Fold:
Amino acid sequence: MSIETVDLVHVFMPGTPAAVTAVDGVSLRLEDGEAVGIMGPTGSGKSTLIQHFNGLLRPTSGRVLIDGEDLWGGASEAGAAGGARRTRGLDRTAERGRTAGAAERGRPADRRAGPAGPGPRGRKVDLRAVRQKVGLIFQFPEYQLFEETVFDDIAFGPRNLGLDEAEVKRRVREALAIVGLGPDQEGPPGIERRSPFSLSSGQMRRVAIAGVLAMKPKTLVLDEPTAGLDPRGRQSLLDSLLRLHHELGLTLVIVSHNMEDLARLVDRVIVLDRGRIVEEGPTRQVFSRVERLQALGLDAPPVVSLMQKLARRGAKVRTDVLDAAEAADEIDRWLKVGAGGGRDRVDLR
Amino acid sequence: MSIFGNITIGQYLAGSSVVHRLDPRTKITIVGLFMVVLFTAVNGPAYAVLTAFTALAVALARVPTRMLFRGLRPILFLLFLTFVLQLFLTHGRTLFVLGPLTASYEGLRQGVFMVLRLLLLLVTASLLTLTTSPVALTDGMEAILAPFRVIGLPAHELAMMMTIALRFIPTLMEEADKIMKAQMARGADFESGSPIRRARSLIPLLVPLFVSAFRRADELATAMEARCYRGGVKRTRLRQLRATRLDAAAAAVTAVLVAAVLALRWWV
Structure:
């Protein structure tokens, strides 16, 4: 499935002196089966942006299309009439912002456009169906666990979908296996019957992710999935995500500051700054623009910095490497060539 | 943060008006006295005086009235219910009959007074928090409670608890909003179904919220310990409370108010 945003703008507390434009005219398209990274300094609007992907936030203006279908009514053919209607809708929102102030800000969207109010064209998009298709995993998802047992917690989503118990059971087992906590994997024995609060934080996070996976989303959006994990927890989480992407064909959207994680997971990177897209392209290409990234307060992966240092000192090496293995190969190649010609001598001290 | 954004309890609106500049001890005392005399008011003139006093305070504080009334919205129903109950359940001369219910003139009078009383109560209380920063408010509380230390009242600890509670209201709201969204992403529905269903649907919100509140409390305690916090004993302050001529003036006005309301009770 594809996710598309058109001139997406999100303003918090519109119509008050405290109004903040978190997302400022973002147009992007995520194709089916893609793995995309979203980066940007703190406060660049990453988290606000991804909450539009499954309709948790309603855009102040602009559109969100899931498989070409506009989440917030107003079909995609935005003629003059559609435009006018949208403008009116906007005014109304602003009006409410003035009277209710913060109350309306970011109010869960389905209150306004949910089952009670069909879209302007009489067609309503079932937000619950969208949330099933687009699984959103927030930062530190372990803080959302609440059930008495791991099984029940993972079953929360599937049960909300109204599935029968047999199917729920199957999905819970499957989800546990995907995150590597299945019966014959590294999970503690009898994990299903244990309290989620008795697990280690890495295991808790994986249970929380399983809770979203059990809804069988087609797209998985993760906000800083590896933050605060130890190296092993991080490795196995990255492995699980890669498996989901390559074997099950899930579309991945990863928000992260960690360039190495992104280098491993995604093909394409979108860089946000102050609510706007400032850089977009294949991972390799974006990561090799070290100065640009540093100007934004981000950093290039260490291997890229290394190659750039070499290049600055006269070594004829490619700088668009993604990981240590690629860098090693490239240095190896250069050393062999360099040894023959002997012309590009480099002071490596 | 967002969903619960209409809760204005304890919200502070920075400013430099006369009311903002009053010593918190003065403000707390005035609000306390106001509440007491509010409950001694029994007739129209007394309510008029009290309303005028409140209006004056609101005007002097230069707080947007919209802000003030937004905080009242959640209790509109309560006000309405109070009015209706008073109207129909007070015995007296018949005003009109509605099925088995009889409204009386006395009930109308009682209802209006009761609603006015609640309104004035809430407006003054919100005015206090709107014009007094939480820190100043708790400092004032502590200073007022200090004399009771001799009978074993832990004034400083109480003030500290209040500061912390106020400090964490926005944090917890933000947290609640985040958890709510995370559960909605898993198909949770907080807004439809019978009241029982809706109450049950809060479990996925409340359990993580409590867990995180306890975790925060624990972390905060550790952080305070790590900085050698010891309550009360010989602590000095960055901001010393100082009463000025302004406070004297406010006290004088309040004294007049109290005298007027009491006088109206006995002589009118």
Residues 302-341 of chain A form one domain.
